[in-house]
Amino acid sequence: MKPVPPCIGNVTCSEAGLALSKMPQGQEFDKRYVARFGTTIDAYAPFTYDAVYVIYDAMKRANSAERAKILAPMPSTSYEGVIGRIASDPHGDLRDAAITIYQFKDRKKTVMDVVRM
């Protein structure tokens, strides 16, 4: 992850998704990323990586690269990625979504809790 900017005082905040340390394949993804690119990952790299594979999976299941045909199988996606299981309900909302609560104290970002929805 990129260095945390200096903060005045202590701050508690939330971010959508899991912290890299809480992702099922997060540590392995981090090692592969650093080995390949020679730099730490950006915060959303694992999510973007998985999103590409979810789209690719939908393209394979649709046997097409056409937008409408790719969108049709998306609600039935069930993909195990870096961030964990990716699946949606019939309305397209993410199942098993998470929000991570962080605390910045003395310029250090630490996970306080994970809220599952």
**Radius of gyration, Cα only, in angstroms?**
17 Å
Number of strand segments: 5
Just give the CATH class. Answer: Alpha Beta
| Full CATH superfamily name | Response regulator
Q: What portion of residues is helical?
A: 25-40%
Taking the alpha carbons of the first and last residues, their distance comes to 25 Å
Q: Would you kindly provide a written description of the structure presented here, covering whatever features stand out?
A:
The protein has a single domain, classed as Response regulator (Rossmann fold), CATH 3.40.50. The protein contains three helices and five strands, in the order βαααββββ. The protein has helices at 26-37, 45-62, 67-71, and strands spanning 11-16, 78-81, 84-87, 98-105, 108-116. The mean pLDDT is 89.
Q: What's a quick, concise take on this entry?
A:
This protein is α+β, with helices and mostly antiparallel strands and 117 residues long. It has a single domain, classed as Response regulator (Rossmann fold, 3-Layer(aba) Sandwich), CATH 3.40.50.2300.
Give me the secondary-structure topology.
Layout (H helix, E strand, L loop, with lengths): L10 E6 L9 H12 L7 H18 L4 H5 L6 E4 L2 E4 L10 E8 L2 E9 L1
